[in-house]
Write a structure and sequence with these properties.
single chain, 197 residues, alpha+beta, 10-stranded antiparallel sheet
Length: 197
Amino acid sequence: MNLSSWRQSLFERWHRAPSGYRPGVTLGQLRRDLAGLEFTSQGAVQGAFHCPQSGLKFDVLERPQAQFLMHIVVCEWRLAVPCDTARQARIRLRHTGAIRRQGVAAGLLTGEQAEWAPLLQRLCSDPRLLEPLLPLDFKHLELWRDAQGWQVRLEHFGASEVVNRLPGFRRYIRLSVEQRAALLGSFTELYRILRGF
């Protein structure tokens, strides 16, 4: 076996779906949590949701993550926000406070600090955004900006499935009513703010 075939084999093994992963099952559970929203399938592991009341549209993608003797299926939420100019940026949002959430911090990962300082300030201080974002239980929240516009990528603690092989169990972690409201509210406010940048 030569070096390139060994690398290819290692890449395929690393990116192979975990044993016991059932594509589309977690997304189906999430559809029940988001009852009342219109759903359009975009394949076995991806779909588009539309909220008729607010007009909000976003995609959700299943992502299995293998771990030792278990795997987790998380849902990555993606909100696209169109923009007029082609500037690049990547911003990560996180909660602040050691014990209780006290605010939101925005860190610029890609882009010019001076250019994006007004947006970073607004993300941390806009009361209409902070109201739904502070109670939102998220693992990762990033804002990406390229020639197509903004894309908000969020990974929530809920709306995920934990599958263990030893001992064998499978558990779906629901998206609660409160978290659903916080997530939809956060997406609505992020859409409003990002349209101006």
